[in-house]
């Protein structure tokens, strides 16, 4: 802990704004929020500010601006890139949005919910379900991740193919700008050409341009019937061909399309008890597909159409094996395989993990060629990938050589070079070094190294204009001058 | 003309960059581009710069920045708000993108076209059609409007309900920033969380933050079979109920849904030769609907399903009459009624026209109540509206009292007060004073009057950061300090 009674921090004025519940200076209460959930980033902070209203957020930001006190907005603290942990110098205060957890309104008729920043994703899922609707974005951290954080990081997940990222689900936004003014844009206008799109600027800005306090979110009809398929293929190119075939046949009803390298599945089967492959034929690559049959006039007929599309695909010679889950329990067991990959890969041993995107049609080559090239360049490593092929986004893992006992030492020794290798290949394919996790602290130097001068210039110009004193989420996202 | 040989303009250096074809100083050749297509905004400029490549645009912008020469980017000069005509002081040069008119690539397989800024919309339509695809955005000025202008104004049209505005169709962007750097973002990445979204910032920025030079655009399957319906209703509330019914039944295959006030249709029937109402029952409001049956397994069956949905609607008591076009010629005659409204309204007499949006569910009340209130407040006027109800966007007209001979004098006398009245009602409904036309010169003062301090602060901060010398499309979009 740095000095909690530092005279630089106007505790009395903060107390007057926030009240006793909204100002936390007890070191034990602060400690859990100083480290990210994967335990890779650690910071220091003398206080957590926990406003209960947008007005309180505005007052805190205005005061912080006046006193040049850095603020680190924080929701569930589930960032994958250290985006919500405070800097090590202990100067910044954590601005927790968790007390702003009201669902201000939810309308099934208008398919819409207005949520405050601190609403936890699974809470919104439950509220939408109770109204016969759903919020079609989910991810592993749904029990902790908050709406404000999901907006600020433009979160993704396995339903992006059909429903888009958070950006596509936010119909309106309320935020406190760094000058303490409230941007009131919650009205869900489908068309609005009043100049620069402030909403899109704040989505994905990782709290560096202001604090998201509430969002108007799009809901969609509940899933009342689904069909879940598992297909084995020789190459990811065949998986993409399958996706295109299914899109032609089933259009917008493809709810999920995940591709999994054979060795990733192998690790799940080795490390996760009670798992088995849905298909008997050993396959270098696997595909998990979910179809929404809720709107189908006849669900059984819908399943028949899926089966005949899969048969056609197998007969074309591009597929090795395919099966359709016979019931809900089996469908869940298919999804469990996908959802256990991260855990299984951790059990398998140390690895570097990349969250990258390239144009969809370039992805099969990227997956195959970059894995081959990485293995050749870093002998003993194995590389493979899994994820959202239809979005052009996969999670690409480079695993330490077998028998590497000290993972952190291996990462310290090889991490930078392997990262550069993988990212250079992304850059060569016209892709992004952060598809869905953001930049945070972790990827800032790589962004500085790889981003074009135009992109860096624009980002720095905006940051400087909005936040010249650098108080909004310092040391995140924007590369240092020395980094690009 | 201001002085074309002004020593302040480095003609020789411009000539060196652009060559003889790219530098136009002949007053007669410049004249047509000094006035907007509706003849309401006039400016002066000593030269048109017409680069042929992105590199030339970058060199021109860098030179203009160095010399503090204002530039007015111009495509087809079809702005509805004076967004592409130069200021009156004659200091700005027109930067015409019309020579950059290559479709760099078009892929039917990937449903994508990369177009330079000067490609004319109808040219893209034809190219897409030749490849068995279509670009699903169209508007009256399609024979002149260019891709760069459509991107820079986030253009709309009658297909937004299904396909979104230009913002939703731009998958990648190339632009020259005010510092002369080229932002290279043409890769169509579905997921990219590398910080601030520069693409979304430039879309709709009306050339005030840089010059769009090319865009990657999404194509969709060709329409091979459509069905076109006309329905009469008592109130716009019934039209919205019809839309919701049809959405439940036909989902994403509703290609267009336009609502038309009875008096607007009356003016079409009075002024446009050869037109007649599709339905016999006199109706206060009309609805034109287009369905895409291209994907339907059986087109005739698709029409039957539409007919039974319309019957159901009529039987529910919310509809007065309905008909389905019997053939393509009849469908075209239905659309001709919609597309002739602007012409008919002009023939009818002077009017003030507003392009406004509110949340969809608030639109029926807005249409009815604001018309009533405007007529009461400005005796002798008539007010009504037509347009894109499903997008929450209509064109709202307030017509001069019958017998008003001098339209411009009436507008000079009453325009400001009526505009404020209509816009105040938009603001009260949480709406936008510019749904699809942008701000340009025309709405700048009203934006300054009505925009929140937060919105104005953010827009001015971005503009100042990107373009501190104010050379990019001066006197457009950003309200003056005296205006808010």
Describe the structure.
2 copies of one chain form a homodimer. Chain A has helices spanning 11-18, 27-30, 54-67, 121-130, 147-152, 160-163, 166-169, 198-202, 236-250, 262-271, 299-315, 328-339, 341-348, 363-377, 407-428, 444-450, 453-466, and strands at 23-24, 48-49, 71-74, 93-96, 103-107, 112-116, 133-134, 170-176, 182-185, 211-218, 220-221, 226-233, 254-261, 285-292, 319-324, 351-357, 382-388, 393-399. The first copy, chain A, is an alpha+beta fold and 484 residues long. Chain A folds into 5 domains: 11-96, Uridine Diphospho-n-acetylenolpyruvylglucosamine Reductase, domain 2; 103-221, Uridine Diphospho-n-acetylenolpyruvylglucosamine Reductase, domain 3 (2-Layer Sandwich); 226-341, Alpha-Beta Plaits; 349-428, Alpha-Beta Plaits (2-Layer Sandwich); 444-483. In chain A, the strands form 4 sheets. In chain A, strands 15-12-14-13-17-18-16 form a 7-stranded antiparallel beta sheet, sandwiched between helices. Chain A has a 5-stranded antiparallel beta sheet with strand order 5-6-10-8-9. In chain A, a hairpin with a 5-residue loop joins strand 8 (170-176) and strand 9 (182-185). The longest helix of chain A has 22 residues, at 407-428. In chain A, 54% of the residues are buried. The model of chain A is unreliable at 1-7 (pLDDT under 50). At the A-B interface, strand 9, helix 8 and helix 17 of A face strand 9, helix 8 and helix 17 of B.
């Amino acid at each position: 802990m740095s000095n909690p009674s530092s005279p630089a921090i106007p505790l009395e004025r903060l107390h007057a704004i926030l009240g006793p519940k909204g100002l936390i200076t007890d070191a034990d209460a602060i400690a859990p929020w100083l480290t990210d959930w994967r335990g890779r980033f650690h910071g220091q902070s003398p206080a957590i500010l926990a406003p209960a209203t947008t007005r309180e957020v505005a007052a805190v930001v205005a005061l912080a601006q006046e006193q040049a006190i850095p603020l680190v907005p924080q929701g569930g603290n589930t960032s994958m890139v250290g985006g919500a942990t405070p800097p090590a110098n202990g100067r910044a205060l954590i601005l927790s949005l968790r007390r702003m957890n009201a669902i201000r309104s939810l309308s099934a008729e208008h398919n819409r919910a207005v949520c405050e920043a601190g609403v936890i994703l699974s809470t919104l899922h439950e509220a939408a379900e109770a109204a016969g609707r759903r919020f079609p974005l989910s991810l592993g951290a749904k029990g902790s991740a908050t709406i404000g954080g999901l907006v600020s990081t433009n979160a993704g997940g396995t339903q992006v193919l059909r429903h888009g990222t958070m950006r596509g689900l936010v119909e309106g936004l309320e935020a406190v700008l760094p000058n303490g003014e409230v941007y009131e844009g919650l009205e869900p206008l489908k068309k609005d050409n009043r100049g620069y799109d402030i909403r899109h600027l704040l989505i994905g800005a990782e709290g560096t341009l202001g604090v998201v306090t509430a969002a108007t979110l799009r809901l969609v009809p509940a899933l009342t019937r689904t069909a879940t398929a598992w297909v084995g293929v020789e190459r990811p190119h065949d998986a993409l061909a399958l996706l295109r075939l299914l899109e032609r046949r089933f259009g917008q009803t493809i709810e999920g399309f995940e591709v999994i390298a054979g060795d990733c599945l192998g690790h799940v089967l080795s490390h996760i008890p009670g798992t088995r492959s849905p298909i008997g034929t050993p396959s270098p690559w696997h595909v998990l597909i979910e179809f929404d049959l809720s709107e189908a006039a006849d669900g059984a007929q819908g399943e028949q159409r899926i089966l005949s599309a899969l048969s056609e695909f197998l007969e074309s010679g591009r597929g090795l094996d395919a099966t359709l889950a016979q019931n809900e329990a089996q469908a869940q067991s298919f999804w469990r395989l996908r959802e256990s990959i991260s855990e299984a890969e951790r059990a398998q041993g140390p690895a570097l993990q990349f969250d990258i995107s390239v144009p969809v049609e370039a992805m099969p080559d990227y997956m195959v060629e970059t894995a081959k090239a990485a293995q050749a360049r870093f002998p003993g490593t194995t590389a493979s990938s899994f994820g959202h092929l239809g979005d052009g986004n996969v999670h690409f893992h480079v695993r330490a050589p077998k028998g590497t006992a000290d993972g952190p030492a291996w990462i310290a020794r090889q991490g930078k070079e392997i990262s550069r290798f993988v990212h250079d290949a992304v850059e060569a394919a016209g892709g992004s070094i952060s598809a869905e996790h953001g930049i945070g602290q972790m990827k800032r130097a790589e962004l500085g190294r790889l981003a074009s001068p135009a992109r860096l210039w624009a980002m720095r110009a905006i940051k400087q204009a909005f936040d010249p004193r650098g108080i909004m989420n310092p040391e995140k996202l924007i590369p240092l001058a020395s980094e690009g």
